[in-house]
Amino acid sequence: MPPARLLLVEDTLSLATLYREYLRDEGHDIQHVASLARARAALAADPPDAVLLDLRLPDGDGLGLLAEIRARPDPPPVIVMTAHGSVATAVEAMRAGASDFLVKPFAAERLVVTLANVLERAALKRTVASLAAGAPRGGLAGFIGAAPAMQAVYRILENAAASRATVFVTGESGTGKELAAEAVHALSPRAAGPFVPLNCAAIPKDLIESEIFGHVRGAFTGAVADRPGAARMADGGTLFLDEICEMDLALQGKLLRFIQTGSFVPVGGAKALHTDVRFVCATNRDPLVEVQAGRFREDLYYRLHVVPVPLPPLRERGEDVMLLAEAFLARSAAEEGKRFARFAPDAAALLRAHRWPGNVRELENAIRTAVVLHDGEAVTAAMLPVTVHGGAAPAAAPPAPRVPDPARRIRPLAEIEREAIEEAIRLCGGNVPKAAAFLGVSPSTLYRKREAWAQRG
Q: What gap in Å lies between CA 368 and CA 327, rounded to an integer?
């Protein structure tokens, strides 16, 4: 990052001198003031690129100044500085709009890295805001679609990729959250490094810490050798934490420390390891709802939710349904050796009318099913799965009269559901995440149902 103009608001002269020394090699132009009154005057005279703000000042509370800064038309980012033991105050400041916080005392490296990240995010935000809407694109880095909502996604991904900022992808299941993470990695300076995905919902709770941080031999039963975790394997690249809101609260604290320091201790180990990782996270839940419910740490949320990327559901993407369907048809027909080249008008009408609760994944599975089970020049409505018809297959002819059968028994829906899930897992060789993908649900849904069935016997 190029040198920036900083406003340092700190009433303790010795600390202000220390912070200047910490930043000496960065080349920043630092203006120091010791009170709220002088800070207001400095902000009015020459707005800085960023503010380092102590919250305890002789003429008032720094939170008031933070609110004033946030109310400006183009507010500079603010890093609040608070004493050890006042993390709750720091979180309050983050809620009020602070870009980050530092807990005193902090090391020089911590200040340099935090400031660099904040300045980088501010530059990214300005770049995204200044981008003029160009000609619509039909896709980006594996994405297919020209809808206005996707144009916004493409711009965010392109600009986020160039930075080190953490990307937080949200969206319904099947909207392409892992594809977004892969795009960030592929478009970033880390593209030559590893991309390591980890689905927090697909790993049992007692194993996920080892999956992330690795373990040493003998750390637990079955640990017959040292094993590097995802954090170490992603060194120099990108670590993608999918379904982050499924992570256990105790492990969230360890992840927060890893994000803050870049170091971690493998399960059963004694020595801290350091790694250089860029984080991309994703969830199909509303993370703020999870924070309010106490299931997700608020401080971790603010560390991760830096560049949000909300992915739109397929039902809001208009003609993207047909762009995607045609691409999936061409791919599936080539892989299966079938003749399909287009959709008949009745099939296209069904595809456009369906709500696609499983989003792009459901659409891809529907096209794959039609191609596997049929052949011809065009996919007709009758070839599409029953789910695309609103739950009822298209009637080619009037149904034959039903003969009453007093012995006929209606089976419970829960029993049918269990059989369908277990059969899907069996066909996928016991791979629960893969079965969940075909069924169009989250892996955590299958794990919870199987656990409940096991308890009932």
A: 11
- pLDDT per residue as tens, the chain (457 positions): 678 899 999 999 999 999 999 998 888 999 999 999 999 999 888 889 999 999 888 888 888 899 899 888 788 999 998 876 566 777 788 888 888 888 888 899 989 988 988 888 888 777 655 554 455 577 787 888 888 888 888 888 988 888 888 999 999 989 999 999 999 999 999 899 999 999 988 888 778 888 888 888 876 777 778 888 898 999 999 999 999 998 888 889 889 989 888 888 888 887 888 899 999 999 988 888 889 889 999 989 988 988 899 999 999 988 899 999 999 999 999 998 989 999 999 999 999 999 999 999 999 999 999 999 888 889 999 999 888 886 544 444 444 445 455 444 566 777 777 888 887 887 777 777 777 777 777 777 777 788 777 767 6
> How far is Cα 147 from Cα 312, in angstroms, rounded to an integer?
10
CB neighbours of 214 closer than 8 A, spacing ≥ 6?
226, 227, 228, 229, 231, 232, 266, 267
Phi, psi angle pair for 165, to nearest 5° = -65, 145
Rg, Å, the chain Cα set? 27
- Single-letter amino acid code for the residue at 217: R
From the list 103, 62, 61, 64, the residue with the least C-alpha distance to 84 is 103
Rounded Cα distance, 141 and 179, in Å: 8
Could you give the angle at the alpha carbon of 434 between the alpha carbons of 222 and 382, nearest 5°?
A: 165
CA dist 246 and 27 (Å) reads 42
Angle at 92 between CA 89 and CA 95, to 5 degrees: 155
- HSE, side-chain direction, 13 A CA sphere, residue 262: 11
Residue 394 CB contacts under 8 Å (≥ 6 apart), including other chains: 381, 382
